[in-house]
Amino acid sequence: MIYALLLGLIFGGSQAPLEISMPIILCLVLLKGTVEILIKKSLITRTPSPYVLYLQKLKQKGTITLHPWRVYLLQVLVFGSLIAFFGYGVAYGIVSIVF
């Protein structure tokens, strides 16, 4: 979720309007979650994607969900947007105090 924090910091630091920056951040977070679902292994680190690890943990716990990708995307969207909004608020507050 570091990407969501960085996006929030970038948009907040540039003092972009919240109405413009948050839909862009939400779309990028959903895109990242979708890419994690489609790609099974990271191309850079050669490790399993977070979605594959999520599925392995579900199997270990014995939890059965009908569509695990929907639950995963919902989690990515909720937690990614919360972290991005936090980064946006921090950067926007610091920039408005300093400048």
Q: Spans with pLDDT under 50 lasting ≥5 residues?
A: none
Number of domains: 1
- CA distance, first residue to last residue: 28 Å
Provide the residue-averaged pLDDT: 91
Structural classification: mainly alpha
Write down the secondary-structure element order.
HHHH
**Radius of gyration from CA coordinates:** 16 Å
Helix share of residues?
Answer: over 70%
Query: In total, how many beta strands?
Result: 0
Q: What can you see in these coordinates?
A:
The mean pLDDT is 91. α1 (2-13) runs parallel beside α4 and α2 (18-38) packs antiparallel against α4 (68-98). The longest helix is centred in the C-terminal third of the chain and has 31 residues, at 68-98. By secondary structure, the chain is an all-alpha fold. It starts with a helix and ends with a helix. It has one domain. It contains four helices and no strands.
Provide the descriptors you would attach to this structure in a database record.
mainly alpha; single chain; 77% helix; 99 residues
Summarize the structure.
The chain is an all-alpha fold. About 75% of the residues lie in helices and about 0% in strands. It has one domain (about 1-99).
List the helices and strands and how they pair.
Elements lengths: L1 H12 L4 H21 L11 H12 L6 H31 L1
